[in-house]
Design brief:
Layout (H helix, E strand, L loop, with lengths): L1 H24 L8 E9 L5 E3 L4 E2 L8 E7 L6 H17 L6 E7 L7 H9 L6 E5 L2 H10 L4 E3 L9 E3 L3 E4 L4 E6 L13 H17 L1
């Protein structure tokens, strides 16, 4: 009788030990370039204009996930690289959330980036999930600051002027709350952009952490 009890017990203990060993041998993912906010940050209302000419307010964030970053269509490097990256990764990232995943390209150069200019720009990337938005600086600056991002205008007397801006990408949840920021890798001699491999690894990690909270 003792052997009949002992053998199943040994089998169960071996199974448990195997599971525990497997769990602890798995590499734990520790994002190096992603900031997950301890508490979601509520965004105040704003008034923007999309590349289609329609009004965009906080309500357009509800019911969807939004990856947003700031830039401008005349940007020589960060913006086209980031937008091409997000367009290419969109379908894979979408698999990790049940709600629609959209991409907001926030132009901080409203002087040149008219809705028509933005429409031509975003359509080039052939991703329907991309929306170009902008506004006058009175609306734009506080909105960008809410996202934890920044931009600074240089002299606009030269028609080829540049705009300094953040290279990070932020994540907004379906309640219109800021929940995470994906930061670029800063390497001397390289354009500062968020690495695709970091985004592919960190995005599902962020979603899992939010689901636990």
């Amino acid at each position: 009788m003792a052997n009949k009890i002992l053998f199943p017990l040994i089998a169960v203990l071996a199974l448990v030990a195997g599971f525990v060993g497997y769990h602890f041998l798995q590499p734990s993912h520790t994002p190096e370039h992603t900031l997950l906010y301890p508490q979601p940050r509520v965004l105040a209302d704003f008034q923007l204009t999309s590349h289609t000419g329609s009004a965009v307010t906080r309500e357009q964030l509800y019911g969807q996930w939004t990856l947003a970053f700031v830039g401008y269509t005349y940007c020589p490097d960060i913006c086209p690289l980031t937008l091409a990256q997000l367009a290419g990764l969109h379908d894979e990232l979408q698999q990790h959330v049940p709600e629609p995943l959209n991409i907001w390209f926030v132009s901080v150069d409203p002087n040149r980036d008219t809705p028509q200019q933005m429409a031509s720009y975003v359509q080039y990337f052939q991703q329907a999930a991309i929306t170009g938005v902008t506004a006058g600086h009175d609306q734009l600056f506080p909105f960008v600051r809410q996202l934890g991002l920044m931009y600074a205008m240089s002299s606009t007397t030269d028609e080829h002027y540049l705009v300094d801006h953040s290279a990070s990408i932020v994540l907004i949840n379906p309640k219109g709350q800021l929940v995470a920021m994906f930061k670029p890798e800063l390497v001397e001699g390289r354009v500062p952009t968020v690495r695709s491999e970091d985004l592919l690894a960190d995005f599902p990690w962020v979603i899992r952490q939010l689901a636990r909270s």
